[in-house]
Structure formats: C-alpha cells, structure tokens
Amino acid sequence: MAQSYRRDPQHDSVYKRPRDPSSDFNSDKRHRASEEAQHRPAETLSAHRQLYERNFPLYKQPVEVGFFSLDSHRNFFNDQRQLRYYVEPRKSCPDFNLRDGYTNRFVKRDDGVKEKLDHMLKWILANRDKIKTRDQTSSSSSALGVDFVTWRGHLTKVLTTPYETQEGWMLAASKFRGTIYISEVETEAARANRVTRSERQEEMMYWGYKFEQYTCADGADGTPDPGGVVNTNEAFCTVVQTRLADHKLLFSGEVDCRVKDAPPAPGCYVELKTSAEICTPKQRSNFHRYKLLKWWAQSFLPGVPQIVAGFRDHDGIVVSIQTFQTSKISQLIKNEQNCWKPTVCMNFCNDFLSFVKSVVKEDDPRLVYLLEWDPHRDVTYTVHRDSPFTFLPEWYVKDTRSHHSSQH
C-alpha cells in the first residue's frame, strides 16, 4: 500500500539555486549562493509535486515515548489526566446537536497567544531519560539524540505543501546542542483570517470540539457528558519518536481520545473529526482531494490508526458517523484523477528536512532561520539574530546547559 514503510535508495536532489542571484538585496539579506561558492547549500527548495514521485521513503513505526496534559488554564502536567476514552455512539445516525452549548457552555482558548514549543520543551526537561537513541544505524551528533524537535501540526503542513494552493506558511528553525527545533510563525494572511473570522466560522470551529464531547468519556468505563462545558484550553498530547529516512524526529501532537481495549499507544488512539455531509459526487471528490489529505497526514505521522468522522448538516446536526482506517485512506482516493499521493507528501517532507539541515548550520539558540513558503513558490529562508522570531526560551537553554555541565 502507498503508505507502508519502505525506502527508496535513490534520492535525487530537488534543491535549486536562484535564477538571479543578484535579485534580492533587502536588509534581511536573503542568502544566495554565488558562482564562487558552489559548496554552499542550495538556497531554495522546490515544492513541485512531480519532483517527489519516487518510492515511499523509510518511515519507522512511531513509538510513544511520553505524554503530557494541559488543564483548563493551559498549565502543563507531566501525566495523562486529560486523556479521554472513546465511546462509540449507539446509533449510526445519532442526531447530535453540535450547536448546543455554544452560547452558554463554551470556554474558548485565546488563539492569539502563541505558545511556540514551550509545552514540549517542558516535557523534554522532565523526561530526558525517556528520549531513546533507538536506531544505531543513523548517528546523531546532538546531545538530545534526535535531529528535530517540533509539533506534529508543523510537520502536517510540510507534508501537505505539494498540494496546497491557498495557504502559505512560515517556520522558524534554530539549532541548539545539535538538535534543530522548528516552531511556527503566524503569517500575515493567517493573522488576518484569524482576526476577521465571522460568527458563523467561529461557531463551526466549536462544532468539532462539541462532537468530541458527545463521543468521549473521562474514564475507561464512563459515559459522555454533553451537558458539560466545552473548554478548548484542555488537551492531552502524545510525544512520539520516529525516523524519516536519515532524520530522527521527536514531536508532539494533541490526541482526542483512546479506545479502552486496544494495542499500546499510539495504536490505541482515535482522531475525531467533523465534516459537512456528502450529498453529491462533486462533494465526495472534494472531500477525498482536500479533507482526507489533511486527515491522513495528521494521523499517519504519529501512528494514530483510526479517524472517526461525524458528518453534519448545515444546521450542525450529525446525520452519520464513519470510521476511516488511516492505513486505508490511500485506497479510498486511488480512483480520483490527479489526486494526492502519500509518497509525494513523505518525499517532500524528507527533502524539506534535508534542506533545513543543509542551511541551519550555526548552533545558537538566539539565531533563527526563517523558512517561508507560498503556493506556487519555492521554499526560501532568511536569517535573524536576536530577533522577535527567537523562540527557544532562556529557561530551556539555561536548564539544558546546566544539565549538560553536570553530566561532564
């Protein structure tokens, strides 16, 4: 199947040097390679999907090395207190009202507050011993034993880039003690969309959380409480370790719930989604092309095996529920003409990480390499020292250096 764990021994570079090395003289100095310095890394990375239709790269089965919880005030806890259990609806057409509670039982997280990697960094400081050097065939010169630390959501954006036509992204990268940390920077377009969302858009964002409330219980033998408060500050996050080709990854992602009697994590986890009901062939095609791409990428990365989707009508009533096996999604789309391919997503992510390694050379937590991409453009980068883009907090840098000193 398309997303099985395979490796392509051939690896063609798709890094490109700019067509006009003298075209950019802004004060931020976009790095450009000259003819006199061909040994330098390429300065851009193409996102053209045809370049990535190679065999599926090696992607090791993700292993959960830890987890953490965020409470109703976004306080960090190094435990599972926020983990919920999936309760399958008794009816295939449950008539859940996703609008219920929006006006009077909803505490919304302030999405204008950018937490960067802070919660994951707190987990690292509390769990250094759990980060394992699992693969001796791929050496890592980092003190942490991994090449990259990031959020799952950032990698999801990278995976879907070859097929994205609407939204660009900005990712900040800093190298510290041999590990490259990647954090997202909000683009101007994303900020504009956030601050101008309509009331209808705000309510529809709530619907996804409300669906979780209808299908999740606090305990293994509990029952859902749809009459309670929906607080989107609360979260349970898995921390997984894996390897994509030669890149050792440590990343975290929010998990909606787990199945009571199931394999060990992450094999027990379930991703919950809502989507508009599908009534026409065109709607089904769009669902396959766009929504399933993001659903697949989000769940495939951490090894979440199933996605439960509530299909709702225009008024927010769930009219049907369908379960998707992450490993079989590529089979659902195989008859769609010119549809997305898992191999393209993973090969682009692999080449993107190689590109990041090639440009992020200086080991300095105050130095940020800002990687930018817009639809139909190449990935480019700029370099910033002691700038507002700096994201590794002093408490993390200081504690890490202190720990390293005490070990020697």
From TrEMBL:
* Cofactor remark from the record: Binds 2 magnesium ions.
Question: What reaction(s) does this enzyme catalyze?
Answer: a 5'-end FAD-phospho-ribonucleoside in mRNA + H2O = a 5'-end phospho-ribonucleoside in mRNA + FAD + H(+); a 5'-end CoA-ribonucleoside in mRNA + H2O = 3'-dephospho-CoA + a 5'-end phospho-ribonucleoside in mRNA + H(+); a 5'-end NAD(+)-phospho-ribonucleoside in snoRNA + H2O = a 5'-end phospho-ribonucleoside in snoRNA + NAD(+) + H(+)
UniProt keyword annotations, A-Z: Hydrolase, Magnesium, Metal-binding, Nuclease, Nucleotide-binding, Nucleus, RNA-binding
Instruction: Tell whether Transmembrane helix is among the UniProt keywords.
Output: no
GO biological-process terms attached to the record: NAD-cap decapping; nuclear-transcribed mRNA catabolic process
Coiled-coil parts of chain:
none
Q: Which domain of life is it from?
A: Eukaryota
Protein name (database record): Decapping nuclease
